[in-house]
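Record pair follows.
FIRST:
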Amino acid sequence: MTAAASAFGVAPARVAEVLDPLVERGQRALAPMRETLAGKRLFLLPDSQLEIPLARFLSRECGMELVEVGTPYLDRQLMAEEIALLPAGTALSEGQDVERQLDRVRAAQPDLVVCGLGLANPLEAEGLATKWSIELVFSPIHGCDQAGELAELFARSLRRRDLLSFA
């Protein structure tokens, strides 16, 4: 945002005046989600091309541990800045080798798996909590002030799993 503002000659003080309240709102909304998400292990299967930015957000802002981040196609030059913000040693995978990916999910037993609809129900039947990746494409998340709403999508899956465990 600041790069675009600079290119259009917008003063840094004006950028801060507009963005600081939005960032503050997003941080306040994230606080209760961090309680649910922090320390939870996350496995992202390739589906939407959003996996790397989501992994960065969930790791840095929500405290989740990344088991593996899969993406259908990985353009390392395009994603270089996002990849640099992932924790050192994060396992990245590219492409669709579903059987091998499912083997790694089952071996890792993560707290949450982000995957396509076709894999979610079978994984849920095996006792794994899932989040449908397609839901993220259609969710109205537009900017730092809605970070809490984005984190809530993941926290909801874990809370649902906890409720079902006690039923």
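SECOND:
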Amino acid sequence: MCESGLEKKAAHFLLTHPKVADLSEQPPSVVWFDAAGQRHRHTFDFLVTLKDGRKLAVAVKPKARAERHRLADVLASIATQLPRGFADGVLLITDADLPRDLVHNSALLHHARRAPDQGLDAAVLKLAKATSVTTIGTLVRESGRGGEAFRSVTRLIANGLIAVVGQSRIGYATPVTAANDGEVA
């Protein structure tokens, strides 16, 4: 239930990042004091738990607004005053951190995970392992399953079993390869 389009883009990015284990929205606010000793409350947009157990409190703001309000400095001050156990650090994400292709790919990967098909995923992964580098379109065509196979490939990418070669917007022409001996869970 993101409050803005930018938050939704950031959520998709975080949910599909390979180091992220969990994402919570709108964690409880934290109290912090500015240099003059004034008491403030700040509510982060997300609380991210990484796979290594660390937690990051994440603020998502448009770059212009973050710069105008010197949000990086404010967050640095808040980071030194976080309650024990709340988070190990803070992260600011702005629209400048979310280029169009990254946003597109993150949303695509996130949505592909929502409807798993283990049988199809295993078949598509087997096709990917049969060659060193191929394209998503080739895997889709060879599977004979059309859009379902496209979602399967993107799901396998999201799960780290197939890797994109290079960096580009994910589509039928995207070159891919099987990741290091990945297996469908």
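COMMENT: The radius of gyration is 20 Å.
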